[in-house]
Amino acid sequence: MDRYVHVKLLNSFIVSLSKTPDYRFALSNGKRVSLVETVGVVVGRERKDKFLRFHLDDGSALLPCILWLNHLYLSPSPSPRDELLFTMAVEQAEEVALGKLMTVRGRITEYRGVKQITVSNLRVEENPNAEILHWLQCIKLGKESYNLRPPLTSNS
Amino acid sequence: MVYLTKPSKGWLQEYCVDTAVAVIVDGNVSLRIDTQHLRDVHFRLGSFYQFIGELVIQPDNNAILQARVGRNVDGLDLNLYNQSLQLRRQFEADHMSRHKTT
Predict the structure, then answer these.
(1) Could A150 and B68 be called an inter-chain contact, meaning their C-beta atoms sit closer than 8 Å?
(2) What percentage of chain B's residues is helix, strand, coil (to nearest 5)?
(3) Residue from the list A28, A97, A100 with its beta carbon closest to the beta carbon of B95
(4) DSSP notation for A88-123
(5) Given this model, what pLDDT does residue A45 score?
(6) What is the CATH number of domain B2-74?
């Protein structure tokens, strides 16, 4: 699977990804996945100086997400780009509030053996039907593009 | 007794400001919601709400959901939601069975 594509997945699929020998992640059919997109409700939020950690509940599983806010700590003299990224990240962090329905995009990582999303961008969904749209897109893409088909029976 | 719950949805039928207890209904079923821990949720009778929290069975056998998270979901297409939820559960079940057989 193209490593630059954000794969739309339910949280239960993300937390059940397997780790590959080259430290990437794969679906049950062996297809590699790096970037994902999911939609869920924020049910936990912890703000620190250098990051925001929050939990996204989509009804299938709880997924930890981390939004880094450490751009100004990475070098002794941060570049204008670092400052811009930091400002954008802080603005995004302020949007994350308990009970908000959010679309989150980012890279799959693992922390202490638990899968999480390292967030690259997020947005608040004002339309509650966005959750339904995401489910249906996950099902359609899973069947038609990601090849996540149910197992074939012996007589089929 | 406390149970973790999946999201509970329903129309707001009652809300008591003193106790912060709300009652939501969906069809013939109603559920009491303890909303004392919620912030920034404005309650309006007749609106549609979703709550996530712990379901507590009280000594008198009545259930109340102690909400951790709540949000107004006015505009949600409930029929589409219920149909999509069935599709999603079936899809997840199929995937998990594949996962076990591979």
Answers:
(1) no
(2) 25, 45, 35
(3) A28
(4) HHHHHHHH--TT-EEEEEEEEEEETTEEEEEEEEEE
(5) 94
(6) 2.40.50.140
Domain coordinates in residue numbering, chain A? 7-146
For residues B38 and B53, the answer to whether their CB atoms sit within 8 Å is no
- The whole-number pLDDT of residue A154 equals 46
Axis-axis angle for helices B78-101, A130-144 (nearest 10):
40
CATH number at A7-146: 2.40.50.140
For residue A28, list chain B residues with Cβ-Cβ distance below 8 A.
Answer: 95, 98-99, 102
pLDDT digits (tens, 9 = 90+) for B40-88: 899 999 999 999 999 999 888 889 999 999 999 999 999 999 999 999 9
What ipTM does the predicted assembly reach?
0.83
Kind and range of the H or E run holding B10: strand B8-16
Cα diameter, chain B: 55
Would you call B97 an interface residue with chain A, using a CB distance cutoff of 8 Å?
yes
pLDDT of chain A, 156 residues: tens digit per residue? 667 889 999 999 999 898 888 878 988 888 889 999 999 999 999 999 999 999 999 999 999 999 999 988 888 888 899 999 999 999 999 999 999 999 999 999 999 989 999 999 999 999 999 999 999 999 999 998 888 765 554 443
3-state secondary structure A49-76: CCEEEEEEECCCCEEEEEEECCCCCCCC
- The beta-carbon neighbor of A99 closest among B6, B70, B74 is B70
Q: Which residues of A touch B71 (CB under 8 A)?
A: 41, 99-101
Residue A84 tokens, joined: 């811009």
CB atoms within 10 A of CB B86: 10
